Amino acid sequence: MIGAITVCRTAALGGHVERCDDCGLTRIAYNSCGNRHCPKCQRAARAEWLAARQAERLPVPYFHVVFTLPPAAAAIAFQNKQIAYGLLMRAAAQALTDLAAKRLGAKIGLIAVLHTWGQTLTHHPHVHCLVPGGGVALDGQRWIARKPNFLLSVHALTKAFRRLFLNGLHAAFRRGELAFFGDLAPLAEAAAFAERVRALRQSPFVVYAKPPFGGPERVLAYLARYTHRTAIANSRLVAVDEDEVAFSYKDYRRSGRSRVMRLAPHEFIRRFLLHVLPDSFHRIRHYGFLAKGDRGENLACVRELLKVQRTHEPADQAQPSTTSEPEADADAREAFAVCPDCGGLMRRIGLVAPHNSGAFRCDTS
Q1: What is the DSSP string of 161-180?
Q2: pLDDT under 70 in the chain at which residues?
Q3: What is the distance between the alpha carbons of residues 126 and 300, in angstroms, rounded to a whole number?
Q4: What is the pLDDT of residue 308?
Q5: What is the DSSP string of 247-292?
Q6: How many Å apart are CA 130 and CA 151, to the nearest integer?
Q7: Contact 4, 303 (CB under 8 A)
Q8: DSSP label at residue 12
Q9: What are the pLDDT digits (tens) for 204-221?
């Protein structure tokens, strides 16, 4: 993964040459690595995901719900990412869907996105859920709406989430699916693990739930920043040299004030690598009537119950913004880029092979 990110948008991967039809500016646009953890890749895939989710939005209030693990549980999750992260997402979703069925008598839908980082790149696993404010009655005959400022009891959600996660964790231990090393090595013993779980049942599993500020489109846009990459964007990098990496972050202990953290390069890389996910792990999941298998049919039924027609977002709303940075491969999904000097069209005029071959091919058509 690090190797892929290191050569991303460099001559090692090849690319193409493009020239502006108006001012004649010529530049090379190198190919991207395509790694899902790369801060620079998959912009178009991210925009497509956002456009699809915007098109599925229902004309109802939405809620933004966040489920967070306490540090002692997060430490276990870090050493058992595949099992624990999946369990975290399922426990959050089941807490919402079970409580909605019990308290509302309705089947709800939700989108869940896993984040594993805090602003300073420390390990902080939590799940963001975007939940429509209501659900389909269990008999399927009507839509049950929630008040715009209340979805479900946060206290009840917290208790259900903690119970479901810890029960699932204990079951995984009994099946021999968990591994422990370093400071957590003693937890491999059944008695020690049981004691840790008992302590966790008294620990705060923080759940945050409120209507999303600025509407669901703002939360979707926020989540989309991280659906196809991880942890930190290049725009947050302030300075990089042999001695340190400086990056900006929001200090939520001081009212979200912007500050700069400076780390030694090896420490910065270590923190970034904390958030690499296991192969094939899905950090975006859909549940309830938004589950992938029959989402289209379910949404049609919901819209019929709401007596509205499906509407599409304006075409330009979900398009990626144009930047002056050249993009070479299918990530851009566009035949032309915009010239950073004059705003004209940059036309591809040739291909650049990976630097090992030393080849260049010009398109004269």
Answers
A1: HHHHHHHHHHHHHHTT----
A2: 1, 34-36, 39-40, 42, 229, 308-336, 356-365
A3: 31
A4: 55
A5: EEEEEGGGTTEEEEEEE-HHHHHHHHHTTPPPTT--SEEEEETT-G
A6: 11
A7: no
A8: G
A9: 999 998 888 777 888 888
